[in-house]
Predict the structure.
Amino acid sequence: MILQTKNICLKYGSKEVIKDLNISITKGEIVTIIGPNGCGKSTILKALSRYLKPSRGKILLEDKDIHIIDTKKAAKKIAVLPQVRNVPSDFSVETLVSYGRYPHLGFGNRLKKKDFEIIDWAVKKTGIEHMKDRRVGTLSGGEQQRAWIAMALAQKPEILVLDEPTTFLDISYQLEILELVKELNETLNLTIIMVLHNINQAIRYSHKIYVIKEGKVYSHGDSKSLIHKDLLRKVFHIEADVLEDSTNKCPYYIAQKMTSG
Amino acid sequence: MDMTKNRIGHTKKIIIIFILLAVCIISFFISVGRGSLDISFDKVIRAIFIERDTVNHQIIWNIRLPRTLVAALVGICLAISGAILQGVMRNPLAAPNIIGVSSGAGLMAYVILILFPNYYYLVPMGAFIGALTATLFIYILAWKNGVNPTRLILAGVAVSSLLGAGISSLMTLFPDKVAGAVGFMVGGLSARTWPDFNMLWPYALLGIVLTFLFPKKLNILMLGDEIATGLGLHVERTRLMFIVFAALLAASAVSVVGLLGFVGLIVPHTARLIIGSDYRYLFPATAILGAAIVMLCDTVGRLVFDPVEIPVGIVMSLLGVPFFLFLLRERKGMEK
């Protein structure tokens, strides 16, 4: 287990959003969390990325409590791309990517030759080396997403946490980002934990899926066999038809209508 | 220093900083040289470094030099304070008055000047304490499992208007004593001399050291709390540190010259329009520009209606705002 949560509870103020949650992530896997709006999936990612501290329970990174490990040490293992982020539009892509090196820098925070090599590697890996000098504000949504992923890669993490990486992107960019995620997983043995809204993309691109309903794990398991019509009815309240995607060898669900009650 | 391929951008920004530095030095000599008695550049140099008993030396050493230096330091402190707050709050409208510096200092100054006029000499210390207390108060009010910038801004606005109500009540209750206190509200440099300078320079030095030490932390903080946490930055600790620095810088400046908080809003923005948002360049540019602008505006205020002086705060608004608006419109056009 590279990362696991032990009976964690997560609160916003006094409102408990997640109760006694247990999740285990194996190294080298792509794990996707799905669930209806408001079920707490983004909250779980916030906890895994150390932003939200559990009110009870523990999160273990390689068997050590994630909030006891020095924050920079943890940042060398886990990189995070949340939904809420912001970059001054006049920063160059390279400047943005260079912040991925922050946890690795010594006193004075100067970038060394090795850091620049890693930045170059990260922009190459995400296919944006030709836009290194461009201002972030001039990039399209998909290009910006790749720039952020490059920043995360420059952290040289073992785990990458992505909160809805395809939101606001058109279908071709969605495909491009998910293909990139898959490639990073395969070539770097990078463990990926992400939240997706599209169930079919989750099935196709992950090894494991966790289905969250009302702050609890409804079920989890192998992505290709976990989802079934009854689950979609109970968790998402939809009636769905299933087709076989023979190209990717996985089921493909078509939502037909809301279930009544 | 920087091995980035993005060298052209880097070199260009360094050149801009040197140009600003040149402007700042010219402003210094204009400020020291111009006045009721104009003293030329070479005579200024001689009066400062060589002569001892001449009239020029007296005028410059005792009156103009300390006042000019105080102006420069005030500009540096307020401008850096504003630049820090705009980054920490991720809000372009953030300025020292947002964290209660102006209202806190203002209320304390008014309390002393109106209720205890015999203790007028305590105004700088009182204003300093008032400013920091207001900041602390706002920070505590905004705290709830951490401080979120929006909550901090709202708490700041609320507390500031509360303190402002205090100031207004004092003015209403003691209308006969208001005249003596108005100067503090406008912000002026009249008769500022070496003791003021001695009070200010440690803070200005702190500000300058900061600009070299922590620009990267502030850049990362601008990316958002979650990203910054993910990159291994202690977000709350760093934010508190920056707010404390900003409060100290602004409080020290305000306690010496009164409410000149406007510098903290307009100078960082002007610098941002010229050099961009990267704090590695923005900090030095802001500091230099802040010094230059306050020195120049004070000089204008001394000269136009000589021998009557216009407080630097008013000149700042009259000259600074149109220039800033011009810059804002120009830049918008360029980006499209």
About this structure: The CA atoms of residues 4 and 60 of chain A lie 5 Å apart. Residues 3-84+157-227 of chain A form a domain with the Rossmann fold fold (CATH 3.40.50.300).
